[in-house]
Amino acid sequence: MQSSPQPPAEPSAKPRRTAAGRPARQQFPGLTKQILVLAVPALGALIAEPLFLLADTAIVGHLGVEQLAGAGLGTTVLGTVVGLMVFLAYATTPAVARQFGAGNLPKALASGRDGVWLGLFLGLVLAVVGFATAPTLAEWMGARGATADYAVEYLRWSMPGVPAMLLVLAATGVLRGLQDGRTPLLVAGGGFGINICLNFVLVYGVGLGVGGSALGTSIAQWLMALVYVALLVPRLRRRSVSLRPSVAGLRRSAHAGGWLMLRTLSLRIAILATVWVATSQGAITLAAHQLVFTMFSTLAFALDALAVAAQSLIGKELGAGDKDRTRALTRTMMRWGVWFGLFTGAMLAALAWVLPPLFTPDAAVQSAATLGMFILAASQPVCGLVFVLDGVLIGAEDARYLALTGLLNLALYAPLLVLTDVLALPGEALVWIWVAFCGYLLARAATLSWRVRNDRWMRVGA
């Protein structure tokens, strides 16, 4: 029997327009809750780390100046290496979120599994290399005598924990990709709490000194790693996903991670180059720069919470093929980033006269740091925008663009630093260093904003 002809589809309604004649923006209920559910736990997890570092510094600091200097040097080397490996979380989160948004949970879990295995493999290699090259690394950092001995001791006792650290990074990315921000917060908070207790017992109770601090961190990282394994393995088995890694999946994770590592490397070089210029300007400028940069790093933890939420949410919505919601999320988080930057900038400006005396009694350092903090305060809205857009494009797996523009921004920043180093007058160097750094942030904001001006960066589907 022939079916009756269907009536032609009605033309879609024209988009509602504002009084000025422009198309009205679509309303998407639940955006605020969606962002906060991920951003607030991410903020807690991000804050847990600097709080732990402060407590650990206090524990080691009571051993003596050389022990503190050696541990500080070891922490810097370890932090630089692990910081370059943060791509394990940044690559895993959007890969998992995209498959999750597409409704393919087994593939999402498989992507996460491959990221975790890649972290473990890389961690084992770095641990062996780090143990063997610890004396050379300490020497390259300029350590001598007892300070070098303590730095080597710290590094070598830290190496057993490196595979666990990288596994934790990747596993955190898996859960965030599955839109779970609460579990990483609980694991981070509990892990760092246990870490502080272990360090105190091993440093003073067992008498291991600097090595005890590093060993406590290694043990705590493995405990965190085991918690993540205990959480992920049952999920994999329930969905009949093999525990063994896929060669193709490892290759995909490494490819995306390579671009993200290049992006992170460009940021690290910019920071190190800034420190080098501050060092060349003398002890007062370097000391003041350290104070201002400490505030920059502290505020970055708060601003980065939105970036973490962006990675998860953008990946999920693109996986679901929803460009409209992706666009709305991007606009909303950009506004939040700027407003949050205005808030943190106002707080810093109000405290700029108060903070430096808390860290140093030197009047010259206080004066230079105060001016630097005012410049940093003025740049906070730009920082907020940069952090959010960085997270948006990481969530969209646009790692190649981030890496290449990272190199471009670094190339633009280098001449500014050279001019600062050559032309800065005594007493004004720190001001111009931070003006140059603001120029670097503006370049990043321009290249990131240019990318999201249209929808070309949106690759939808699984």
Describe this protein with a few key phrases.
single chain; 462 residues; mainly alpha; 2 domains; 15 helices; 80% helix; globular; disordered N terminus
SSE string: HHHHHHHHHHHHHHH
Number-wise, the strands total 0
Report strand %. under 5%
Structural class: mainly alpha
Note poorly predicted spans: 1-24
Number of domains: 2
Choose one word for the global shape: globular
Biggest sheet descriptor = none
What's the Cα radius of gyration?
24 Å
Count of DSSP helices? Answer: 15
Q: What distance lies between the first and last C-alpha atoms, to the nearest angstrom?
A: 40 Å
User: pLDDT average, as an integer?
Assistant: 82
Please bin the fraction of helical residues.
Answer: over 70%
Summarize the structure.
With 462 residues, this protein is mainly alpha-helical. 80% of the residues lie in helices and 0% in strands.
Can you give a write-up of this model?
The structure is a single chain. The N terminus is likely disordered. This protein has 2 domains: 211 residues, no CATH class; 206 residues, no CATH class. 80% of the residues lie in helices and 0% in strands. The radius of gyration is 24 Å and the shape is globular. The two termini are 40 Å apart. It is mainly alpha-helical. It holds the Pfam family MatE. This is MATE family efflux transporter. Keywords: Cell membrane, Membrane, Transmembrane, Transmembrane helix, Transport.
Layout of strands and helices, then pairs:
Layout: H1 31-61, H2 65-84, H3 87-101, H4 105-140, H5 145-158, H6 162-177, H7 182-205, H8 210-238, H9 247-280, H10 283-319, H11 323-351, H12 355-359, H13 363-395, H14 399-423, H15 429-451
Helix pairs in contact: 1-7, 1-10, 2-5, 3-4, 3-6, 3-9, 3-10, 4-5, 4-6, 4-9, 5-8, 6-8, 7-8, 9-10, 9-14, 10-11, 10-13, 11-13, 13-15, 14-15
